[in-house]
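User: We ran a pulldown and think these components assemble together. Before we commit to crystallization trials, I'd like a predicted model of the whole complex to look at. Sequences follow.
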Amino acid sequence: MEHYNMNLNLKVWRQKNSNTKGEFKMYRVENISSEMSFLEMFDVLNEKLIADGEEPIAFDHDCREGICGACSMYIDGKPHGPWHANTTCQLHMRAFKDGDTVVVEPWRANTFPVIKDLVVDRTAFDRIIQAGGYISVNTGNAVDGNALPINKDKADASFAAAMCIGCGACVAACKNSSAMLFLSAKVSHLALLPQGEPERHSRVLNMIDQMDKEGFGSCTNTGACEATCPKEISISNIAKLNQEYLCASLTSEK
Amino acid sequence: MFTSSIGRKLVMSFTGIFLVLFLIVHVSINACIFANDGGEMFNKAAHFMGANIVPRILEIGLFLGFILHIVQGYMLEAKNRKARSAKYAVSYGNKGSKWYSRSMALLGTLILIFLILHLSNFWLPNRASQGLSLSGEIDLYAKMKDTFSGHNPVTAITILVYVLGCAALGYHLAHGFQSAFRTIGVHNKRYNKMLTSIGYAFAIIVPLAFVMMPLCFHFGWIS
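Assistant: Here's a predicted model for the assembly, 477 residues in total across the polymer chains.
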């Protein structure tokens, strides 16, 4: 595709902190290269704002290569923007045309309160992980790579679930602000492996308990999460989670 | 177990499947009117349901199933709405999800409105005439004919509510049928596809059979 430059109008959510009311502000960016990433375009805008003595726009970012899950912008009605299976940092400006108006909002969910501008507090996800999204192992030498045979299909399914980067796009896209796709990826990933077996039941019960405490909505299987997930986590993980939960509830004494 | 978010979904799913089973019984009995024998077959079937102690006792379970499904549904909808107080300026829309999958509460409300009218049309007068006894039923075929065949505003509104109710039921089932099985934990891709197809077929055939009943009486397609 040919390289081109564009001018854009940006409608960006500005909010000083979690206690103040935010509002949209219009910005104009000029001479943006089609080869830039969406975040680089924001860098250009922020440079200009700083030069003009204005407060730059706060946004989350870290690796900028689509694997850390830090970036989190709701662009034109879709988390991470218009491209399929993509993060905001990997969204390139060639997704837009000269003269476009782009609306940028933070993730909207009461469990993800806005800290500043486009930055939201996603520690609710951390607390869900702390409730059971791990395995307990003894420290010491690492075990030989292939000492523990694992069925190829299960290893693949587990790996597909482990792709989840915990960015929260599923919550942002869901009409119920449900965290079920995230949680189901974490539960499936470990439930499919022998290493996850000892804590299999307590894990799902504790993680669901924590999810409910945080105040996420419940899943109604609409499929919006799967369609927006940058890592293409399948909604069938949610059915798997339901099964894990049902089995754990019926058989464990907790 | 049934108080957690998944537990409450399980309640929706189990009661939903129970109500689907009820629909099969209901549509089968009502389809007897299509025998076009002046209601003889239909009234026999209706008599079996109304004048037999077993269906009368099971009816209480049916009401419980309905109430659980409706109350739990509204409670979940309220909780889900509360989870996002600040709305988006640009809504997510139809990307990856169907409008009816996101409108289950609205569709359910339409069905509830229809249900109230429907019960007051047939079930209430019949049970009022019976009391607690197993006899004294009214002629339900004649009642159907009476309710649907007139050419006046009341009949027109009744038929409109029935048509809307059946359409809402169709869309509610189109999502609800397969969603119920996902909630129970069916995650085999082949079975999910199969259940989705069965769900669509069910969601078309059953409401269509139901909606044909008032229409047939109204337009005199059955005598």
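Chain B has eight helices and no strands. That may be worth checking against your pulldown data before setting up trials.

User: Thanks, that helps.
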